[in-house]
């Protein structure tokens, strides 16, 4: 079987090809105000990578516009000169989505940080793309409102980045992802046209263009304004941490909670290594040496939450939970979450280096997948810590290694890739929230076939026929990825044992 | 097996598999329309005479249901009500309650039309529940987007792109969906109030911690507001005092068959009777009263009888027009201008064919229309998919034009 169609090859072969000339530089400088252009080599280097620090490319220029019109003028200059551009928010992305393109420019949105308006009655706010995720909730807290998507990086990452990555967070099992909380976008298309996608009304007439831009990782255009949906803060929130003798029992407890018809606001799991790292970093009160801990949070109407919180505790006990810690107040709850949200960074406490992996499996495959990961980790002689969103099967295995030991980084990278391909084999996905970016573009063929990729390439070409908008991300470049059909199967639904056949 | 019959001048085909559907499209030319149960063939513009009608009735299987993962994969032609019956056995449902469920509306058709019902307030629209799709393009290309797990950001979100596409991008052949547990208890509170106070109450309910599942209003006996709550027995009962207090004198608490009757009555207020023109609209929730007032004004200006129904907490509305076709056409146009001036959207639904004579079915295009055209040109290069459905927004292809670039 071929991996790519001829049409696909032709479509992704378009990648700008223009040069950053003196004339281009002048046009861009004229498009932005003073301080809006960075060309000092030392300063350019601060933009050479995002949160995926293994890949680095120094951009030819960095532009920091402050208005939609400035963004559009810069993009028009890029389009005229066929110069590739890469949008950038806070640079916390973990898949190399904001990795610069050689001979291209970076358009940084971090200076566009105003909250335009808050409409309390209609529960929405209009914000510029550089506003951080946490700032939105902080700005509307006085009205008992909040922005539901809560990536662990929320204090730093921008709403523009959240839109581009369709970011999730611990609470997306119940409340959904960024795509479910964005009503409208002001959008600069790769030819520099400014359009509105979505709008005041819940639905627009015709195909949902807003939806295809959400999660497109900056490859379809630049988002310069976002209308977000806000939610009323729930009346009651209850949080517990339950310890289990092994990850399998914890996984069974999650399944039983869901089977009881309860949709928790969040269900997170940490394994022994992850707990050790978190405790060293922030002393959040998790039980050291416990093989698996579940953080379960319920929210909603008080009477309902009380009833279901009792059920959850019974279910945990029935699944051999060895200890249940209940957060008595908001401070205690914050401590529990601080531990969980610090998990990635905390790995530095137990290992000199680590890869953060992101993959999804059907939740019911949790136990067997964790066992397989353990076996793969043993075989590779590398430790793997697991911390993940157990409710929706979104795993974050952290592959620990020492970069100073020759060959260990390569082995670790290999293991991380093997784990994500295991997720696909289980009927899951190569990414649940960190995106494809440059990191996983070659793994797209593990999930999608030649025709699927062709249609995605058509979508991209419709927005960006010149291939200047974040080229090389999301869709695999055949030249770099090779002919690699991978474990792709014609129809994943039919994979034996994956899903019960009717 | 594919079933072929001729209908008017167009051929009606009923492919029995995705491969057959792809073969059919690859091996044919000319305009094609897709049809599920046919409950919304009139929505938006009327397509040109089709050379081929592809019915999805042969793609109506449940492909996979995994109760523990709360996901289901189905053929696009599966009627929603059949799916709900099957899922109900496992204590689950697809959290969608469109009015056309009873008329046999199919899952694929519901996705392509972006239809929803009152409980969208709590569960979102099909846009929020779809996690994967198999799409057949007019040139026979078969593409999957999304996946089979509830969390997934790999590749472009084709499933959601198709939401509301009205058959203009290609055939929705298979759909993968996220499911919810059936709530163990439900109750509905009603209050006799006109639209103005109803909108205030809807906004106050949204601003409260009561978490209503649905808020619906129709023009029966001077106005009927209905608020539904779902959850556990205790959770639903606990809301009773606060909501009765909020809705004031005349409020009633209904459960069981009395509750069902309330909702049947409200659905009746949105249904198309013979000769009626039905138009859907969306706006900011707080603009609902203005949208209602604009309807009265538009009706009066053209001498047309109008009726308004609304889900004011969502900002989704239904207007019905009765009168001479030309007058209805101008009343619809007038109302649409007023709603769009508020930032809202309007979508024509059922109507007598004569109404279309004096009316631009789509109205002025949005600012994104050139992106829409570019996308359409790439996915349906020959412009075969329901030409005319989006009226002037997606002009029918001109013969001889090179449409591939
Ligand atoms: C410690 C840590 C924890 C994390 N936890 C989570 C988590 O829980 N959940 C989760 O989903 N992610 C998580 N992430 C990943 C990351 O924070 C998110 O992907 C975030 O949305 C990126 O935002 P950013 O502003 O940093 O974007 P960047 O990294 O700057 O950019 C990300 C992508 O978005 C594009 N982009 C940025 N701004 C725009 C714009 N205005 N218009 C168009 N495209 C744009 C870029 O081109 C790039 O492709 C975590 C990262 C870290 C470092």
Count of strand segments of chain B:
19
Strand content of chain A: 15-25%
Number of domains of chain A: 4
Q: Give the terminus-to-terminus CA distance of chain A.
A: 29 Å
Return the average pLDDT of chain A rounded to an integer.
93
**Annotation field: number of helices of chain A:** 18
- Order of strands across the biggest sheet of chain A? 15-12-14-13-18-20-16
- How many individual β-strands of chain A? 20
Q: Can you give the helix content of chain A as a percent range?
A: 25-40%
User: What would you say the CATH architecture of the largest domain in chain A is?
Assistant: 2-Layer Sandwich
The gyration radius over C-alpha positions of chain B equals 22 Å
CATH topology of the largest domain in chain A: Uridine Diphospho-n-acetylenolpyruvylglucosamine Reductase, domain 3
- Spans where pLDDT lies below 50 across 5 or more residues of chain B: 399-405
Major sheet description of chain B: 8 strands, antiparallel
How many separate structural domains of chain B?
3
Summed over residues and divided by their number, the pLDDT of chain B gives a mean of 94
CATH architect. name of the largest domain in chain B: 2-Layer Sandwich
- At the first level of CATH, what is the class of the largest domain in chain A? Alpha Beta
Description:
In chain A, 59% of the residues are buried. In chain A, the strands form 5 sheets. A 7-stranded antiparallel β-sheet of chain A has the order 15-12-14-13-18-20-16, with helices on both faces. In chain A, strand 5 and strand 6 form a beta hairpin. In chain A, helix 1 packs parallel to helix 17 and helix 2 packs antiparallel against helix 4. The C terminus of chain A is likely disordered. In chain A, 34% of the residues lie in helices and 19% in strands. Chain A has 4 domains: 53 residues, no CATH class; 92 residues, Uridine Diphospho-n-acetylenolpyruvylglucosamine Reductase, domain 2, CATH 3.30.43; 118 residues, Uridine Diphospho-n-acetylenolpyruvylglucosamine Reductase, domain 3 (2-Layer Sandwich), CATH 3.30.465; 111 residues, Alpha-Beta Plaits, CATH 3.30.70. Chain A has 502 residues and is α+β, with helices and mostly antiparallel strands. Chain B has an 8-stranded antiparallel β-sheet, with helices on both faces. A 5-stranded antiparallel β-sheet of chain B has the order 5-6-10-8-9. Chain B has a 4-stranded mixed β-sheet with strand order 1-2-4-3, with no helix packed on it. Chain B is 30% helix and 24% strand. Chain B is α+β, with helices and mostly antiparallel strands and 405 residues long. In chain B, strand 17 and strand 18 form a beta hairpin. In chain B, helix 10 packs antiparallel against helix 11. Chain B has 12 helices and 19 strands. The interface between A and B is large, with 101 and 98 residues. The complex binds flavin-adenine dinucleotide. Flavin-adenine dinucleotide binds next to strand 3, helix 6, strand 10 and helix 13 of chain A.
